[in-house]
User: Fold this.
Amino acid sequence: MSELHKFIFEGLPVRGMLVRLTDSWREVLQRRTGANDSFPEPVRVLMGEMAAAASLMQASIKFEGALVLQVYGDGPVKLAVAEVQSDLAFRVTAKVVGEVAPDAQLEALVNVRGQGRCSITLDPKDRFPGQQPYQGVVSLHGDRREPLQEISQVLEHYMLQSEQLDTRLILAANDEVAAGLLIQRLPVEGSGNLGQRNEDEIGLSEAYNRIAVLAGTLTRDELLTLDADTVLRRLFWEEPLLSFPALAGGAGPHFACRCSRDRVSSMLLGLGRVEVDDIVVEQGRVEVGCDFCGVKYHFDAVDVGEVFTPSVHQAPGSSALN
Assistant:
């Protein structure tokens, strides 16, 4: 079962979270198994790491709405998206055009000519009139303009630039598990007012640095194969760690897609009757597949007529087909 664990270090302005996506992550991949657009292994790893990272970030801010993490650029992966709702329901997908090398990292996937970007969007569930989603965008380079090879490095850089929060992020994914560990230094209230306070802050900063270094010793295999309690015990057995009950099941991370036949109907309305009718004449029906869950929605000539008929009580259309 997928789980998210929160913990703090008592007496220190340091918090952490660990997520393990298991059954929910496998469901994402199983829905694309055998499809013509099934993803190469490096893309699956990137998607899993993004799903884990987005789950950690959503849980850390407690935002009422959707957190959308995207990377896009000029490599064979034109776009990869992970979306997590406030209830930790997530979905993830990618658009791949071209060949992906078996050992490709982030630069080779998205940032071949340096045009890659990472964005984080916060889309409120209930927007006020005129309210727009908040979005932050960073390049896929470090401070010295060096191409970053891991999405974890990009997000650490993003958090420091955009939120002024020191963050250590360890991510890993395979076809069974997508997991992540986040360590974050919290602001010290009232820091900088007194000389003694500054000395205290230095000590607290050293504490964060020590914990971040310990987190950095976690290997990919350990993160993927060990349960959360074992990971935390091995890393922080000498630290004043206080763990909270795990979020699991319906309260924890779980796969859910927001696609629906009504949403697809609205998209067809946006295309216009003439264009949709042309597709029906040419192909016999309109087929629209969801990039996130793989469900395909079919609309024949009768269904299209119902979509473009302004009636409150329309006859039910054909059902979605897997």
About this structure: The chain has two domains: 3-255, 261-307. Residues 191-197, 312-322 have pLDDT under 50 and may be disordered. Residues 261-307 form a domain with the CBS domain Like fold (CATH 3.90.1280.10).
